[in-house]
Amino acid sequence: MLARGGMHLPALANPSSLWILSPTKDSQILGYRRAYTAAGEVYSPSLQRKVARSFSELPGNWRTGWLNLFHFWQEGGFHNVHNIMIHKFQKFGPIYREKLGLYQSVNIINPEDAATLFKSEGNYPERFMVPPWMAYRDFRNKPYGVLLKKGEAWRSDRLILNKEALSLQMIDCFVPLLNEVSEDFVKRVQVQIGKSGRGRWTGDLTNELFRFALESVCNVLYGARLGLLQDLIDPEAQNFIDAVTLMFHTTSPMLYIPPSVLCRINSKTWRDHVQSWDVIFRHADKCIQNIYRELRLDRKSTKEYTGILSSLLVQDKLPIDDIKASVTEMMAGGVDTTSMTLQWAMFELARTPVVQEQLRAEIFAARQAAQGNMLKMLKAIRLLKAVIKETLSHWCLDW
Ligand code: HEM
Known about the structure:
- The protein is mainly alpha-helical and 399 residues long.
- 60% of the residues lie in helices and 4% in strands.
- A three-stranded mixed sheet has the order 1-3-2.
- The model is unreliable at 1-16 and 23-45 (pLDDT under 50).
- The chain binds protoporphyrin IX containing FE.
- Protoporphyrin IX containing FE (HEM) binds at residues 8, 10-11, 125, 127, 146-147, 158, 217, 329-330, 333-334, 337-338, 341, 392, 397.
- Its cofactor is heme.
């Protein structure tokens, strides 16, 4: 997903990466559904009857990396990446190999192939390591977080974080923090509608949802509000949001041009990238200091949940720098993923007013029945959950 130049890069593995493009309605029309051979050693029993091709036999343009990169940029680069990939799938089939600059990937489009891959990953899945993010940490001598770690180091951190971030029991803790932000967002929409005098509001939805997502994620992670939903944003919070935006913007070019080269020539992209991460990490430092101060002053009740960072610090199961690294990476991973999901869901709902009405009716009914109990309400909104799942299966959110 490319929200404000941002991205989330979950399904890529370096140096020979694997890209999964969600098959949209369009791509299915293009006829990619026929069975195909899987690449290399990764194939399901159903595919074993078919002949697997070796890495060097895969179709695709993977011999002329720099020329390919030049064409990629000519065709619009990251802003047009889905169309570029669709055309390549059309040309080479549902599994193709590619080289852009120094960066190699194998791209797949069929959900069965993605399932085969995920099933065969084992205990230590290979992830795309986001070279510029790693380069920053190496440059500043900071540890990697869960998004960038590998092997056993990744697994042990991940098991600790799973309990804090993914276990179902945590929903009870997250909901009040998320709800607080959501209510402010709804108020903001209502105020803007009121101000317009026309009964409607025309705004920059991408930007609004990005701010909403960042405010929500930060409230859950740091247990603190940034104030991004106000008309007048505190300069320090604005500095942080600008840094997150710039960090994402400067990541894209460094996916294909090695950060080490840009660092050596001290290019603006590299300098901006370093500066933006510095601001993001300083923000994490400040939050940690605040949490410690509150704990020292005994102002925080031990029963009150005040976010993932605070909880990890109190548990003391990870070194502080590792906590900081993972919380910062969760912040980077949780913003554009969620805001773009919402934006695509709204786009789909705008195209299907019937579902929109059903959804509205479901939410009103659930709200009335729940009488302010958000957890109860969440259990009763099955259509809303289906809309989000459907959106995620139709639209690739990585760019
Ligand atoms: C609709 C929203 C989201 C989507 C579609 C999404 C998608 C993904 C996917 C596909 C992966 C790769 C998982 C894997 O390969 O096993 C991933 C990893 C990750 N996501 Fe998300 N994500 C979303 C929201 C979030 C949020 C809200 C956060 C943080 C608060 C987050 C943080 C991360 C992190 C840290 C990883 C790396 C995990 C690891 O390597 O252990 N994501 N995401």
